[in-house]
Amino acid sequence: MCRIRQRVCHRGSVFMDCLDEFRNFKKDDFEADWIKVAECRFGQVYQVRLKRQQEKCALKSFHTTLCANNIYRRTIDEASNIAKVKFKYIVSIYGLCSEASAVVMEHMSNGSLNSLLASHTLMWPKKFQMIHEASMGMDFLHSMTPPLLHLNLKTSNILLDDCLHAKISDFGLIHWEEGMNSKLFVEHLTVRGNISYIPPEMFSQCPDPPGTTFDVYSFGIVMWEILSQQKPYAGCSMTTVLLQVSHGKRPCVEVIPEQKPRECDQMIDIMRQCWDQDHRKRPQFSDTVRKTEALSKVLKFPGPIQCHKNGEEGQESEYPWLVHPMLKIALPEMPDLPSGNHMENHDSILSLLCKKDFGSFRKFVKREHVSTQFSGEKSLLHYTVASRDVESVEHVLRLGAEVNCMTARGYTPLIIAVLHRIDDIISLLLEHGAAAAQGDEDQWTALHFAAQNGDDRTVRLLLDKGAVADAREKAGWMPLHLACQNGHETVVRLLLSRLSEDAIGEQEAQGRTPLHLASAYGHLNIAKLLLSKGADPNAADCSLSTALHLSAEEGHNRIVRQLVKSGVNINSADSIGYTPLHLAALRGHTGICRQLLSNGASPDSKTLQGWTPMHLAALRGHEATVVQLESQGGCVNAGGENGWSPLHLACHQGEPEVVAKLLAAKADPNVSEDSEGWTPLHVACTSASSASVLHLILHHADVNAVNSGKVTPLHLAAQHGCMPIVKALLLNGADRTLMDASGSTSLDVAQRCEKWEIVELLQK
Predict the structure, then answer these.
(1) What phi and psi, each to the nearest 5 degrees, are found at residue 599?
(2) Helix axes 580-587, 623-631, angle to 10 degrees
């Protein structure tokens, strides 16, 4: 198996301990700068920070006057029970804040799955992982006694944490009330925009209340959204959706991208089962968890990668090396078949292997069994090798089994033995003429698998028996690439001893060399070895990225140091203009930034979008990195795309600590961007970051600055309803009589946006 580095986000244990008990928070328990992160039909969601613990929470505030059927009342009635539900893939509820008519819950920094699917292109392993995690969350709810039904499952109610792990939210808030009919219940759901997730039985006059199969149907639609990254029934009216679903029509499977892994077909089968027209045929979540786990393990994902679409601010380069070659489905499953008295039966022969009754197997197996093909074109020899019994393998070979027979996917008995790491059977097969150089349908040879597994004994044996050291699989990977990626130094040395000098720089289909892979995954000794053997540190992949780009982005300080010593071009830019310094700054690797700058990296080089390393560090809130860049010559007032400065970006992201550091380093608080004339103070007011606003005012930001639409910071603060910012602006000379280009004052804006507290303040 490929060894992948997983980044894990650990919550502070003290914080979690203090929130174990359900409590009623006061507004004063939170810092003043509430950042609105979402607006829904019945209220807003704010990012807040607890004063004492200095930890972020989410606060879901309800418009109590607008909530149909008093949703907030029902929510608080259920909140204490829901808060008891604790599971890794369930969003935790910490308590209430009655003063704000709000529920306080776990902060999920990456928002909803609905937003992510619309703004990012996800790789297949991440899609599979999210489906599996959501299925585990739902299985946990349904495993309770009685099952806790969600009845509101959709992508906007699946939230994502720092590492893009999925968690189920807003469960247990919708109920089938006594005396309710299906029509009334459907109307209740459609108010929430749920028409696409309602199963067909709810559109009939069926009097039965919804059960667990309701959620299973909704999950099927969620799966389609994740796989296709599109919205179901887009552009269709509610009536059209109702009619289509009632007649068995579902979202179009053909829109799922054609360039998909083979395993996606199995995921689509699960999806179709989930949205079956007959609710009795839909699987339980326990079955779905088991199946999606198997599929997600096949497409193992290396970490929380966000692949931004073109044009997004602070775009991260979409580096293909982060997806390793597809892990192979290696082991033919032994069928669970009943035994019988008639040993002539082929299935009964296999059942003896399943039960590990090898003596009886050798006694009853006959020559005609050897030539039989089982499911997937597997032979008896394949199954016998998988059983791990050397004597039985030798016996089947003596009966005339073809040693190089292949399954439908091209697996030979030798490949299966290598994957099982059964040394005696590997040797036995080679003695009987197994072809060491034969590959499967993707041209993976036994040597590829042995190199990926770090099995140096088998690698040596295969090389001695004619395996081709520089054999390439379908995507151009040699065994050396796999060994370097997975950190198997002994295997790397063995392969290098059998390869020509030129092979050390060979590139796979994406242009990655063995040095790229060792550097990306942090294998220092292998990187040193490759460099000592003449590997070119300046070799670039198809994205024009060098090994230094990869190691700088992943934070491998010692490899960066080694590459710098080797004479690598520190200022080389990839295909979208990112230098290694850009990537280190984007990820907040301050030590690597210091090292690169000390060795000649340009502090103010720009990407194709015009961003400097300072911009990217400010965008991501890396305070220490900003300070380091500035101390080594980075410009705090550099203009990026549309003239945005690092200060603009820090204000946009609501990063007051970075704002303070930039201002202390003489960043201009009144610089305006090119297209609309916005100053950092405009941006901070839009982001509702009151701490950033205070920092800017203290550094003489113009509180009455106007943009191209004559909008002042006070107009924006009134629009977004942030009372602390409005007060701060007024106390520091903001002119409430100024009108924007439409002739509206800040009071007019507050009234139009129904920010009544602001209206009252501005009328004084």
Answers:
(1) -110, 20
(2) 140
| 487, part of any domain | yes
Q: Please give the tally of structural domains in the chain.
A: 4
Distance of CA 484 to the CA centre of its chain: 25
Instruction: Specify which residues 61 forms β-bridges with.
Output: 44, 102
Last residue of a domain, one of 494, 513, 537: 494
Q: Is residue 588 part of a domain?
A: no
- Are the CB atoms for 590 and 625 separated by under 8 Å? yes
Concatenating the DSSP letter of every residue in 384-396 gives: HHHHT-HHHHHHH
How many other β-carbons are positioned within 10 Å of the β-carbon of residue 109? 15
Identify whether residues 386 and 472 lie together within a single domain: yes
For 692, phi then psi, to 5°, come to -65, -40
Q: Do the domain assignments include residue 550?
A: no
Q: Do 610 and 576 form a contact (C-beta atoms < 8 A)?
A: no
CATH of the domain at 753: 1.25.40.20
CATH number of 40's domain: 3.30.200.20
266 class by beta-carbon count within 10 Å (0-12 exposed, 13-18 middle, 19+ buried): middle
**Same domain flag for 672 and 692:** yes
Of 23 and 464, which is predicted with more confidence? Answer: 464
Using DSSP bridges, classify how beta strands 102-106 and 56-62 pair: parallel, antiparallel or unpaired: antiparallel
- Give dist(CA 416, CA 393) in Å, integer: 12
- Residue 640, pLDDT above cutoff 70: yes
Mapping DSSP to helix (H, G, I), strand (E, B) and coil, where does residue 344 land? coil
Tell which residue, 654, 758, 670, 664, has the closest CA to residue 714.
758
3-state class of 195 per DSSP? helix
The one-letter code for the residue type at 654 is: G
Tell whether 696 is covered by a domain. yes
User: What per-residue confidence (pLDDT) applies to 302?
Assistant: 35
102/120 same-domain check: no
Task: With H, G, I as helix, E, B as strand and everything else as coil, classify residue 467.
Answer: coil
Burial string for 337-351 (b: 16+ CB within 10 Å, else e) reads bebeeebebbebbbb
Q: Which residue has the tokens 């089994």?
A: 401
| Type of residue found at 100 | A
- Please state, in angstroms and as integers, the Cα–Cα distance from residue 402 to each residue in 321, 345, 370, 413, 414, following that order: 38, 21, 8, 9, 12
Given this model, what pLDDT does residue 102 score? 82
pLDDT the model gives residue 397: 96
Of the two residues 545 and 34, the one the predictor is more confident about is 545
pLDDT of residue 742: 93
The tens digit of pLDDT for each residue in 661-670 reads 999 999 999 9
Residue ranges making up the domain that contains 752: 665-764
Of the candidates 145, 71, 139, the one whose C-alpha atom is nearest the C-alpha of residue 103 is 71
Could you tell me if 27 and 147 lie in one domain?
no
Same domain, 54 and 178: no
Is residue 96 domain-shared with residue 135, that is, in the same domain? Answer: no
> Do 94 and 137 sit in the same domain of this protein?
no
Q: Model-level pTM greater than 0.90?
A: no
Which residues, listed in sequence order, are joined to residue 46 by a DSSP beta bridge? 36, 59
Query: Looking at this protein, which amino acid is placed at residue 316?
Result: E
For residue range 582-636, what is the model confidence (pLDDT) as tens digits?
Answer: 999 999 999 999 999 999 999 999 999 899 999 999 988 999 999 999 999 999 9
- What's the rounded Cα separation, in Å, for the pair 732 and 23? 37
Read off the CATH number of the domain in which 166 is found.
Answer: 1.10.510.10
* Candidate from 44-48, 128-132, 227-231 with smallest mean pLDDT: 44-48
Q: Is the pLDDT of residue 541 over 90?
A: yes
Both 292 and 149 in a single domain? yes
Distance from C-alpha of 58 to C-alpha of 49, rounded to nearest angstrom:
8
Considering the chain, what is the average pLDDT of its residues? 83
Q: What is the reported pLDDT for 5?
A: 24
Residue among 753, 641, 763 nearest 63 (CA): 753
The band of 77, judged by pLDDT with boundaries at 50, 70 and 90, is low
